[in-house]
Design a protein that fits this description.
Layout (H helix, E strand, L loop, with lengths): L2 H25 L7 H12 L15 H5 L10 H4 L8 H16 L3 H14 L3 H23 L12 H14 L1 H25 L18 H12 L1 H4 L2 H11 L4 H22 L4 H5 L4 H10 L5 H4 L1 H16 L10 H15 L11 H10 L5 H24 L2 E2 L5 E2 L48 H19 L6 H11 L6 H12 L4 H22 L9 E2 L2 E2 L1 H5 L1 H22 L5 H15 L4 H11 L8 H26 L4 H28 L2 H4 L5 H4 L5 H5 L1 H17 L6 H16 L3
Antiparallel strand pairs: 1-2, 3-4
Length: 749
């Protein structure tokens, strides 16, 4: 492009960008989302506070050091949007692509400098610097080979093995020259590797929410995302015809083998590599929240229904990279494999599905694939303009209000949820939550035939409790009248072991269901349980002053509000199951509601509570049958509802439900037997509630009727009977339920 035309275009974009910045600032004057971290950090640097660092910031301080905006260079929406926010993305993309351009121009020192700045903007750019260095090695080796050879076997149609052997051979021959040329890029990579060893991780802050994982679906999300963004180039009839023609040119056996192996590989990735970050489930300000709920995860099989789209996207991407669908010379096999490996290294460790993580890779796809037609480019640009206009309009002009009165805005940004007027972070949620049926187990140091699986129960419960807490936080937003929702949240979010919702999720996964399908019911179970605790603590009932180490609800809000808070939680629980459950047949949702109703009503918790009240003061006059009735209905009924509901939501058959019902009844009764034991063996501090109350009011308990030793024997017998119901399932899949049974036996509070 002539310099005069380039100058005119740059000036036009600069003026247009300045107008848009002013417009957004006018309508969104307050710092948005992560800007609440970045702007104060920049101000600290301006004030000379170089050692003061906000622990919520995860990236290097390159954004604050340059302190300038970046010219809009493309209409790509995920890049365009960030031009108007104080985020790292624009600078990150600019320096990474500039480093690549400098390397292509063989200005390797400049490329190393720009690559260093790119890593300062975003740590994962170190992988792209390594990619640039590796491509430079390939280009130098191939150029040297062509200059010294008259062979005709050096075209882009060579095999991958030939390419690898050729590059390795030439790289060894040219090792001194390569090191002399590429040391600026190599030094950036090794310096960052040293930082990882020193820092103990990639991010510099908020490490709990940025733990590397094995998210195998990320590359598949990326290729589908690319083909959708570039739909005028990838999904036209002519491109599809060429892509499929290239795939189907070989023999029928080879074609069938390719397609079947590709489909099976993708299905296995979906089954074992689908992860859902709590932020994705928790924050409704982002389009990915709705894409996940209403498209990818709208039904249990929708993830698998997308397999053909993933397959075509992979084949189309490979075809355009190979140059078979356009005029530009294609990428060599070794270059395609290098790019695929780079994308995998960048994306697979990322737990959160976040489209802005795809930006550099998206630009690489656009630059490396064969050139689309002028018409396709024009249509794509037009779609980007429409998308940008809608995104900015909705972001600036269509804010909405959360239940606590704070203003939220729809955006492409995905970040940690912020929920109140002080813009505080809600709570750190789970670091890794699997949504496949796989349960992680480790080889035991004991005999491999042991009936007890090796399973990190503490980690499992910690992760599940954090995920459940995040879901519960969203289930009861603060609304008018604030006092009632605050009272509901006070007890609901007071902590606790979350055994009932964890049982529900574990049972659902055991029979092949997903966490998303069971989470509304898991929340409802905790609402019902919390209601029972609020009412149980009232002066007319147990008259307790403390619950979970905090003053009881009526001590904080008064008896009237406490009663109403319990009532509101009970009614909300049924509404929540009916309204929020997705991807489950309506008749199964109705079946779950019936189970919950029986567990809490006159055939369940209420029945047990009534008999318990009537039996107070009777002591040994209460028979063992009556005591068992109380415990089965007062405690075990809700645990039974948790397990059975999870199984129903997961699609269990009647035989499976019957076994899990027996399992839950046994652990439910064992739970209460252990509770009776702890009342006389544990302290108030250990229990988090008043200890010894049953003994003080001559209440019938297992120890008072059969003695402490026999009570422990009964608990052990019940746990063993419960575990026997799980033998038909693989040990690995049933590991959480085995571990939960063992936990009930050995718990201390």
């Amino acid at each position: 492009m002539p310099i005069a035309n380039l100058t005119t275009l740059t000036a036009t974009f600069a003026v247009f960008g300045a107008v848009l910045v002013q417009w957004i600032t006018l309508h969104v004057p307050e710092p948005y989302m992560d800007e609440i971290f970045h702007i104060p950090q920049t101000q600290r640097y301006f004030n000379g506070q170089w050692t003061n660092w906000d622990p919520k910031i995860t990236t290097f301080p390159g954004l604050y050091l340059i302190g300038t905006g970046t010219l809009v260079c493309c209409l790509y929406p995920l890049h365009f949007f960030y031009t108007f926010l104080y985020y790292t993305d624009v600078a990150s993309t600019f320096f990474t692509l500039s480093a690549w351009l400098a390397a292509r121009k063989q200005r390797y020192r400049l490329a190393g400098l720009l690559g260093g700045f790119a890593v300062l903007m975003r740590q994962t750019n170190a992988v792209w610097v390594a990619f640039i260095a590796a491509r430079s090695v390939i280009e130098i080796c191939l150029l040297h080979y062509k200059q010294g050879s008259t062979s005709k076997g050096t075209g882009n149609s060579t095999s991958l093995v030939t390419d690898i052997l050729l590059v390795l051979q030439r790289a060894w021959t040219l090792r001194s020259a390569l090191l002399r040329l590429l040391w600026p890029l190599i030094s950036v990579v090794f310096t960052f590797a040293g930082f990882i060893l020193y820092n103990g991780g990639i991010v510099v802050g908020d490490k709990d929410n940025h733990v590397p994982v094995r998210h195998l679906m990320q590359p598949l999300y990326f290729v589908l995302y690319c083909t959708i963004c570039l739909a005028p180039a990838y999904w036209t009839p002519k491109t599809m015809e060429r892509t499929l023609a290239k795939t189907l040119t070989s023999s029928l056996f080879k074609t069938a083998s390719l397609l079947i192996s590709l489909a099976v590989s993708i299905a296995l990735s979906i089954f074992s590599g689908t992860l859902v970050h709590p932020f994705l489930l928790a924050d409704n300000r982002h389009y990915t929240f709705y894409l996940w709920r209403r498209v990818v995860n709208c039904t249990p099989w929708m993830r698998y229904a997308l397999i053909p789209a993933y397959m075509y996207s992979l084949l189309a991407l490979n075809a355009l990279f190979a140059g078979s669908c356009g005029k530009r010379a294609g990428q060599r096999p070794i270059e395609r494999v290098l790019f695929a490996a780079t994308v995998a290294i960048v994306l697979i460790p990322a737990h959160l599905i976040e489209f802005r993580y795809y930006t550099v890779a998206f630009y690489a796809v656009f630059m490396m694939s064969s050139t689309p037609t002028v018409a396709a480019l024009a249509v794509t640009a037009g779609l980007f303009v429409v998308c940008n206009a809608l995104t900015l309009y909705i972001f600036a002009m269509r804010p909405f209000q959360w239940g606590d009165g704070s203003v939220a805005r729809m955006a492409t940004v995905q970040a940690q949820p912020v929920r109140n007027h002080a813009s505080r972070i809600v709570r750190r949620t789970a670091t890794v939550v699997r949504c496949a049926a796989e349960v992680s187990t480790r080889p035991s140091s004991e005999a491999t035939n042991s009936s007890k699986p090796s399973f990190d129960f503490k980690q499992y419960m910690g992760e599940r409790a954090q995920l459940i807490d995040a879901a519960l936080d969203l289930s009861v937003p603060v609304a008018y009248p604030e006092v009632i929702t605050e009272a509901m949240r006070y007890s609901l979010l007071a902590g606790g072991k979350r055994v009932r919702p964890a049982l529900c999720l574990a049972a659902c996964e055991l029979v092949g269901g997903s966490i998303e399908a069971a989470m509304p019911t898991a929340c409802a179970l905790e609402m019902i349980h919390t209601m029972s605790l609020i009412h149980d603590d009232l002066p007319s009932m147990d008259n307790d002053d403390f619950r979970r180490g905090k003053p009881t609800n009526h001590k904080v809000y008064g008896e009237e509000i406490a009663i109403l808070a319990g009532d509101a939680l009970l009614s909300l629980s049924f509404e929540y199951v009916a309204r929020e459950t997705r991807g489950v047949a309506p008749e199964r949702v109705l079946q779950v509601i019936v189970e919950l109703g029986k567990a809490v009503g006159s055939e369940g918790l209420v029945a047990g509570q009534v008999v318990d009240i009537k039996s107070e003061g009777a002591g040994a006059e209460v028979g063992l049958d009556t005591l068992e009735y109380i415990h089965h209905h007062k405690t075990a009924a809700l645990l039974e509802a948790a397990v059975v509901s999870g199984a129903i939501l997961g699609g269990a058959n009647e035989a499976e439900i019957a076994k899990l019902r027996k399992y839950s009844r046994d652990i439910g009764l064992a739970f209460q037997v252990v509770d009776d034991i702890l009342d006389i063996t544990a302290t108030t501090e250990e229990l988090g509630k008043t200890a010894g109350k049953d003994l003080a009011v001559a209440k019938a308990t297992y120890p008072s009727l059969v003695g402490l030793d026999r009570s422990k024997e009964i608990a052990n017998e019940l746990i063993e009977e419960a575990k026997a119901q799980l033998v038909d399932w693989p040990m690995a899949k049933a590991a959480p339920l085995y571990a939960l049974a063992e936990y009930i036996r050995s718990r201390k509070n």
